[in-house]
Amino acid sequence: MSIVERMKNLSEKECPVDILRKEIAGSKCSDCGKCVFGYEGVTQLQMMLGDITEKKGKGTDLALMKELCALMKTQSLCEDGEDVADAVSYALAHHAQEFEAHVAKKGCAAGVCKKFMTYHILAENCTGCGDCLDACEEDAIAGKKRFIHVIDQKECIQCGACMDACDEDAIVRAGAVKPRCPKKPVPCKRK
Ligand code: SF4
Ligand code: SF4
Predict the structure, then answer these.
(1) Which end of the chain is more exposed for a tag (fewer CB within 10 A), N or C?
(2) Which residue's CA is the nearest one to ligand 1's atom 2?
(3) Which domain holds residue 141?
(4) Ligand 1 pocket check: which of 129, 141, 190 to mutate, most ligand atoms within 8 Å of Cβ?
(5) pLDDT at 134 over 90
(6) CB 32 within 8 A of CB 55
(7) Which residues, in sequence order, are bridge partners of residue 121?
(8) Residue 43 belongs to a domain with what CATH number?
(9) Is the CB of 159 within 6 Å of ligand 2?
(10) Ligand nearest to the CA of 135
């Protein structure tokens, strides 16, 4: 299946920015090198799409990608470069809202791009065991024994280690809608 066909067949659970980034990374242009516009174009696109999914996208990235793809479409030596250009142009035209939301750092609607997710500790499930605090290398969790633990969103780097460490399913990952959680550690209600 061509990349443009893949972009036309996304499920609701998929993020167009994330899928486009992965498809372009696996394109033939990325290890061919026979033409400048194919190879350099794909390299630049990979960098911009990587930044966008990592919450480091710039306001100018979308216009730059459009310009680049118009050149790739006419200057690439084979249909693989054209396919990349068509796929990016299609994605930018049909998923403009998702791209803009990523660049404006508002979120990833599909809940796929990790850097756009936040981690939270649910007061009703936390037993205050401290396992999450021990697992967090960023010191982003506050708490003590038998107190509901709290994640400091400014310090959290969204690695997910705390979620893996919690046996009580007390830690959740959230997109645009965040759960209500205590702002500082308070005594646990759970026995
Ligand atoms: S969130 Fe989980 S691991 Fe952390 S203190 Fe609460 S129960 Fe323990
Ligand atoms: S996601 Fe990672 S950095 Fe954030 S609180 Fe959990 S362990 Fe710490």
Answers:
(1) C
(2) 166
(3) 117-174
(4) 129
(5) yes
(6) no
(7) 171
(8) 1.20.1440.230
(9) yes
(10) 2
Ligand 1 atom closest to Cα of 131? 3
| Structure-block tokens of residue 177 | 């809608």
Six token digits for residue 162: 């705390």
> What integer best gives the mean pLDDT of the chain?
92
Helix (H) or strand (E) holding 121: strand 118-121
- Residue 3: half-sphere exposure toward Cβ, Cα within 13 Å: 27
165 close to ligand 2 (CB < 6 Angstrom) = no
Total domains present in the chain = 2
Atom of ligand 1 nearest to the CA of 188: 6
| Domain annotation covers residue 75 | yes
Orientation angle between helical segments 16-25 and 36-53, nearest 10 degrees: 140
**What percent of the chain stands above pLDDT 90?**
71
Whole-number Å distance, alpha carbon 122 to ligand 1 midpoint, is 9
pLDDT at position 191 is 67
